[in-house]
């Protein structure tokens, strides 16, 4: 009798562990982050970066290229590491995989017209926890997607502002170069006039005249 009772025990079998390999939702989420990061890095191309530093770009292009590569590499590595740390800390892959499984099961049951409900007291704690966590994960995923889109929009606006500042800087530099050229020409003209009029000779004649007048006054 005891053996028969054990064989017909209502205790549920243990649930299979949630795979840590990214499922469709987790993979799409990672791809979304990668695309957003790549777009951000592309907006900071070398041509746009060097236009902010025309003098180094002209006289030390190799050094400026190296600096640009170091900056973009550092930004990319830092962003990826922070993203991976958040993924591990929040156990995002396992949560999204579990969400994917629950959604798939629900769709399958709805499609087949079968509704199988397990008694809540027979479910393992992990599954109950993830069932309560699923709406939060869905909301978090939506919020993160919105935040990434917002950051993309802000980056594009920032790029437009930088380009506008570059144009203003170029106009200012052009005006300064014109002003300096005018000063150089004016200096050359004044130098020629001074030499042509013999100002130095006139000053010497005036000094000689005053000396002669002084000698006559003494006499």
Q: Structural class, judged by helices and strands?
A: mainly alpha
Low-confidence stretches: 1-14
Rg of Cα set: 40 Å
Number of strands: 0
Q: What is the helix fraction of residues, given as a range?
A: over 70%
Q: How do the SSEs run, as a string of H and E?
A: HHHHHHHH
Kindly describe this structure.
Helix 2 (24-43) runs antiparallel to helix 5, helix 2 (24-43) packs parallel to helix 7 and helix 6 (92-112) packs across helix 7. The protein is rod-shaped and about 130 Å long. The relative contact order is 0.08. 83% of the residues lie in helices and 0% in strands. It has helices spanning 2-7, 24-43, 46-51, 54-59, 61-89, 92-112, 125-197, 199-218. It is mainly α and 219 residues long.
Task: Please write out the topology.
Layout lengths: L1 H6 L16 H20 L2 H6 L2 H6 L1 H29 L2 H21 L12 H73 L1 H20 L1
List keywords for this structure.
83% helix; mainly alpha; disordered N terminus; 219 residues; single chain
In short:
The protein contains 8 helices and no strands.
